[in-house]
């Protein structure tokens, strides 16, 4: 409601209220409460999409910095560093499960973001009562084997994972407008499958999203967020030992956790920004840096893809 009032009276309120609104949204995202955290990112997105055309250069800088701060403070670093308390063995599994069965279960992998309730069509977060599957339900899956301090830590980490994915979506929706990038992806994929490399994918990208209001430096800043999120997810997904340890400690249900959606959607959005800049005549001055970044990101992505052995992992990338 505050964001709606802000939007309605932008000219009067932006000098007075904008910093406070960003600070408030940032605060929401820091809380160990899924509803607050997701509302924070969704409200940020709505404020930017509804008002971005009227933002000054300085306000855009503040917006990018707010996004950057949220990204940096919600990367769930502890997923990579968590260790069971020394001297403790991993909780024993309920007796019906035989050792070899356990092994086949552990080979399966479940995306931490799966079964978390998606956004509604108009991009506003559903009201708490309406939420079908929320992090809280996921948290209830943590409980049987995890000890109390771990339950709290795992619950907080789950929320950070959700915020990361929401933020990737927020950047994509803000820069390109929600419908455009999905349509573009579908057409590009269809062209690639026909092997029509020269096929001109025509999507009406004119006047969609906030892309044209952002400077190249601001876009690079958002890109850095996306790539940092991507590399974190990749490091986690590659760390089989750590994922097994978390799974045995009761983190996130029956299978080993992964961050596949985060790994792939952050990269997709980053590439979308880079390729858009690379074909934009008005950004010719940034082309040298864009080209360098494109070559680095693409070669890193392709060499990583070639090392993937899991069918489902490759599938997600395809």
From TrEMBL:
<dbReference type="InterPro" id="IPR046455">
    <property type="entry name" value="Sec7/BIG1-like_C"/>
</dbReference>
<feature type="domain" description="Sec7/BIG1-like C-terminal">
    <location>
        <begin position="162"/>
        <end position="318"/>
    </location>
</feature>
<protein>
    <submittedName>
        <fullName>Brefeldin A-inhibited guanine nucleotide-exchange protein 1</fullName>
    </submittedName>
</protein>
<dbReference type="Pfam" id="PF20252">
    <property type="entry name" value="BIG2_C"/>
</dbReference>
């Amino acid at each position: 409601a505050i964001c709606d009032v802000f939007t309605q009276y932008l000219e009067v309120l932006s000098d007075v209220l904008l910093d406070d609104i960003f600070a408030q949204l940032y605060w929401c995202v820091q809380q160990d409460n899924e509803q607050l955290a997701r509302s924070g990112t969704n409200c940020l997105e709505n404020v930017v999409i509804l008002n971005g055309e009227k933002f000054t250069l300085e306000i855009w800088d503040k917006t990018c910095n707010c996004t950057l701060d949220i990204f940096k403070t919600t990367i769930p670093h502890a997923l990579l560093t968590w260790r069971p308390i020394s001297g403790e063995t991993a909780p024993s599994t309920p007796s019906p499960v035989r050792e070899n069965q356990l092994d086949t279960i552990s080979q399966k992998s479940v995306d931490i973001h799966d079964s978390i309730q998606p956004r509604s069509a108009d991009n506003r977060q559903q009201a708490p009562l309406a939420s079908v599957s929320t992090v809280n339900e996921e948290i209830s899956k943590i409980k049987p084997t995890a000890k109390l301090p771990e339950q709290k830590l795992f619950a907080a980490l789950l929320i950070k994972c959700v915020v990361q994915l929401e933020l990737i979506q927020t950047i994509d929706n803000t820069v390109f407008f929600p419908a455009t990038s999905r349509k573009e992806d579908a057409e590009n994929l269809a062209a690639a499958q026909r092997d029509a490399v020269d096929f001109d994918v025509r999507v009406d990208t004119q006047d969609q999203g906030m892309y044209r209001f952002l400077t190249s430096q601001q876009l690079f800043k958002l890109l850095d967020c996306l790539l940092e999120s991507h590399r974190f997810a990749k490091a986690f997904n590659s760390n089989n030992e750590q994922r097994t340890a978390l799974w045995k400690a009761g983190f996130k249900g029956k299978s080993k956790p992964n961050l596949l959606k985060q790994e792939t959607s952050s990269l997709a959005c980053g590439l979308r920004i880079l390729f858009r800049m690379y074909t934009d005549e008005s950004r010719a001055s940034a082309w040298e840096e864009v080209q360098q970044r494109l070559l680095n990101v693409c070669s890193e992505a392709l060499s990583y893809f070639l090392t993937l052995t899991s069918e489902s992992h490759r599938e997600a990338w395809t």
